[in-house]
Amino acid sequence: MAKVALILGAGPNIGGAVAAKFAADGYQIALAARSFSTGISDQTGFLGIQADLSDPQVVKSVFRTTVQQFGPPSVVVFNVAHRLLTPPSDPLSTTLDDLEESRKAGLDSAFVAAQEALRGFKTFTPGTPTAFIYTGNTLNQIAIPGVLPFALAKTAAAMLIEYAANAYGQDGYKFYYADQRQPDGRPASLGRDGSAHAEMYLQLVQESRQSKWLVTFVKGEGRRDFEGVDFDGETRASYDLKFGRA
The whole model's pTM is what? Predict the structure, then answer.
């Protein structure tokens, strides 16, 4: 089978860099996003798939289209999110509709994508490099004010990846939650670097066995373990001290 990488939520930064990196390593590339027209690009040879990935049922059709064109993907990158904001001092003012919107994009669609990815992984010859990589952030480790709906989806998705890594990693089907940080551990946020993600993701795919499912990394340095740190350098422990919580 040809090597195939499917990138869900393929924007110009992370998605574009990951596509270029994996194409250079011999992968056929399928990209899914609202902004694409469905078809093969004359310039790149990549398969573009027009898709609203906030709808979990659409995710299944993206996999079907990819399989029909190239075969099942051995690498799936989930780069979808719906970043809804709340007043920093009033997180419970968010609506149930907002929670559902963020959850459908960041968790429900990821769950379906992981199911479909695993189904494809199991068709490969043992030893074939396979990986499902969720583009995450620090919100699974610390509550950053103002983004409750977004954070709940990311936190639940991190748990999804942990469950999958524990269950299937020993069989060679790898699952990772990837989170770029600044060198001091603070979130990379708008400074997220596409090339750094691409380099890290290819390394994860090439690992011979499942390593730690939570991948925090720094551009130019690779993997480094961090706890949750917000934009002001606060951690859960420092917040407890700040608010006098024993």
Answer: 0.96
